[in-house]
Amino acid sequence: MNILIAVPSMDSVPAVFAQSLSMLEKVGDCAVAFQVGSLIYNSRNELARQALKMGADYVMWFDSDMQFQPDTLKRMLSIMEANDLDILSGVYYLRVPPYTPVLFEKLEMDSNQHCEHLNMAKVPDGLFEVEGIGFGCVLMNTSVLLDVIA
């Protein structure tokens, strides 16, 4: 199993992120790729291309301002495989008030074609479905990427 750990970032990463990444328990053949740039969507697109080019089965997305447990990748992969999922997000919160989870119950387009979203007020126990997620801590099967570009 090939996994790309994909990290979009600016010029540097915080020490707590570097420490989390260095302690991450790897599964299968893991490669780490950083994409430096100020436009996150360009960085994510380039990292997705890298994952497909290397033949990765999964992409583990981490934002460079995150801190996570060493078993994050193992736990998320286990949950994905046990539940036949293509995308799984960890639960994390905004760093500024109102400190809501970066999970969205509902996504709708407004009249200007901007996405309106409703952050979840309370996170249920266990596995649950949402319409939108941030990408600070996401495990994705690369088949999703193939579906998007097909």
Q: Could you please describe the fold and organization of this structure?
A:
The structure is a single chain. By secondary structure, the protein is α/β, with parallel strands linked by helices. The chain is 29% helix and 29% strand. It is built from four helices and eight strands. The protein has helices at 15-23, 40-53, 72-83, 142-149, and strands spanning 2-9, 29-36, 58-62, 87-89, 103-109, 115-119, 132-133, 137-141. It has a five-stranded mixed β-sheet with strand order 2-1-3-8-4. The longest helix is centred in the first third of the chain and has 14 residues, at 40-53. 17% of the residues are buried. The mean pLDDT is 89.
Low-confidence stretches: none
Mean pLDDT level:
89
Shape: globular
Give a quick account of the main beta sheet: strands, pairing sense, barrel closure.
Answer: 5 strands, mixed
Q: How many beta strands in the DSSP annotation?
A: 8
Secondary-structure element sequence? EHEHEHEEEEEH
Helix fraction by DSSP (H/I, runs of at least 4):
25-40%
Strand order of the largest sheet: 2-1-3-8-4
**Strand content bin:** 25-35%
Count of helical stretches: 4
Distance between the termini: 23 Å
Structural class: alpha/beta
Over the alpha carbons, how many angstroms does the gyration radius reach? 15 Å
